[in-house]
Amino acid sequence: MRDYLTEFTEYLISVKKSSKSTIESYVRDNKAFLRYADVNTVNLESISDTEIKTYIDTLSNKGKSQATLIRVLASIRCFYEFLIYSGLVETNPTAKIKLHKEQNKLPEILTQKEIDTLFSQPNVSTLRGCRDKAMLELLYATGLRVSELIELDIDDINLQIDIVICHSKKSERIIPVYKSAIKSIENYLGNVRGALVTDKNEKSLFVNMNGSRMTRQGFWKIIKGYAEQGGIEKTITPHTIRHSFATHLLENGARIKDIKDMLGHAGVSSTHIYSQIIKQKYENSYTKFHPKAGL
Question: Domains of the chain, with CATH numbers?
Answer without folding.
Answer: 4-85 (1.10.150), 112-286 (1.10.443.10)
